[in-house]
What we know:
The protein is 83% helix and 0% strand. By secondary structure, the protein is mostly helical. The longest helix has 38 residues, at 41-78.
Amino acid sequence: MSYYWFKAFHxxxxxxxxxxLFYLVRLFVYHAEANxxxxxxxxxxxxxxxxxxxxxxxxxxxxxxxVTVAMAIGLITVEPEILKSGWLHIKFAxxxxxxxxxxYCGRIMKRLEKGDCNWTGQQFRxxxxxxxxxxxxxxxxxxxxxxxxxxxxxxxxxxxxxxxAASIQLYAKKRRLDQEKLTL
Length: 184
Ligand code: HEM
């Protein structure tokens, strides 16, 4: 029974962690785009975004990560046999990338606060696609395990995810260009 409790809270942790990661980088987009505002709005906005980012990272995102990892350790402790599964080792590699992304976002947050980050809103929008890819791959591995199908349906789903990510980027770019035309 404890295995189910660990799994339930593992999944709750994943939802909280990803909600935090997606919203954090969205705030980075607004933070970077605040540079286009005149003073004093620029300073007020940047200070406000810095506070929101710090609270989101420390109160939602990092605790979500800790709950996910702690519950995963619980799952493995209750059922150590699972460590022999090949899919779990591949999942470890992608989770390691996710952890690197998490701490990298923490570094960007500190640089934005110091005014020491030259990234544009468009670059942050592109960065925000990375956790989407990791989420899809990790969930696929966790659900299909060693029988992950590599047939046409899977590739169609992969193509759909890529097309969705690309269209979000293109739509954001179009909106930015339209806005630039309006301000000229
Ligand atoms: C330290 C990192 C992680 C470890 C060691 C880990 C390990 C595990 C284990 C042992 C299970 C139980 C599998 C089963 O009962 O068949 C599980 C389930 C699951 N994990 Fe993770 N996990 C980690 C991170 C993540 C992350 C980051 C995500 C999402 C992006 C994720 C998504 C899932 C899902 C969706 C399930 C449920 C699969 C199912 O029951 O069909 N895990 N995980």
